[in-house]
Amino acid sequence: MKIKHLLLSAIAVATALVSCQKDPSKEQASLVLSDSAIAFESSAAGTKTIKLTSNRMWEVQIPADAAKWVSVSPDSGDASADPQTIEITVTANPDNDRTAEISFRIVGGTKKLTVSQKGDQGEAVKGDGSREKPYSVAEALEVITSGNIPSKEVYTKGIITELGEFGGSYGNYTYKISDDASASNKLEVFRGYYIDGAKFTSADQIKVGDVVLVLGTLVYYNNKTPEYTSGSKIVSINGSSEAAAGFSVSTTALSAEGSQTSAKFSINSDVDWTVSTDNSAYVAKPASGSGSSEVEITFPANTASTPNIVKITVSTTADVATKSYEITLTHKAADAAGVVVVAADKEYLAANKDGNVGDTGVVSYTNTTNYGTTVVTELRVYKDNTLTITAAEGYTIVEVILSCTAGENQKQGFYTDPNCLTVDEGATASASVAGKVATISISGNTRNVIYTASVNQMRVDNMIVKYKAL
Questions:
Q1: Range 339-363 burial, b when 16+ CB lie within 10 A, else e
Q2: Most exposed: 134, 210, 333, 394, by fewest CB within 10 Å?
Q3: Tell me: the pLDDT tens digits for 137-174?
Q4: How far is residue 440's CA from residue 356's CA, in Å, rounded to a whole number?
Q5: DSSP assignment, residue 210?
């Protein structure tokens, strides 16, 4: 009996001891921070501490933007009845004052810690789109995507992070700006203009890294692209509203067919400039100027079997980033047979009874018809009169194409009768007429092709002559 009572007592004591122990997993979750906010009153890097007490394992969560400048150590830990020391560290702040909210989390609860730090630039001013308080890029993007886009022009300040299409002679530029050169949020400035709305004259007038103040109209293009629509202008670049001198050319490579006698390019400039070529047969018009201008290079047709490569130099003595450009003009060779094509259009033919075909001076035409006081809108060759097409000495005519687009009845006088055609001795000619076009084909060499209007008058509003050097 005595032994039995002793055993029951031991079991009772053991049961009592077990019942007095607490199960941590059944306790109410508890997380205590000694501070709910800490402030760094200097822009310099620094560290401060807080105390943390928790009966659960804990961890820290820091927003991505804040993680660039604030850190926590340690950033996780085990449960402990004793307070744990936590270090909050910030980097130097050369910008505006900043604030971050850090979360300390346990299963069953979260506590927030607000961390603030002064910046060298002081308190950030929220933009309202005015010149005094321009939007930041983030604010402009928020305004656009919110659907509350102002109908008036607004200002935005940002850093150029990407250069797009330069509009050349149109004078516009497409580029992107952001609040931070490394940020992903960018605002496109679509076909914007330079300072005070002037045209861009050179692609190097702005560059990545420039801080610009832009004035224009914000849009949400196709509900996909937030941007400044075309027509915006730069107000200042890196704080200056003074426009830098610009100087550029529209291209550095020109090409012309062998039969062509001119080529053009544009100079985009607000300074004086000159143009020169390394071949005297290739002439610049104008050869000098001030400001933006179109320049035409004129030259004779190339009848050789090899191309002409001509260097065109555009230069200035002004204080600009690039003082000289070299443009290469490739004037192609005549075709495999050395044939050159020249033409006279309706306006020229109507104004000139006799004249040149093309600008080469190689082929000309004469018309024996006397119009008298009749006003003509094309070249007319009256009955029994002749149209004579002549090539200069040393050349031969290969083919003549005459056409009239005034109306079906105006093709009158286009004849296939061989008696209507006369060419130099040793050559033969044949004519074919298709619709409003007469084609005279030459076999052999001839400098002269004479077409006689023997039945009715002939009306021509386009003349094409193919020739080659002998």
A1: bbbbebebebbbeebeeebbebebb
A2: 394
A3: 999 999 999 988 999 999 999 999 999 999 887 889 99
A4: 18
A5: -
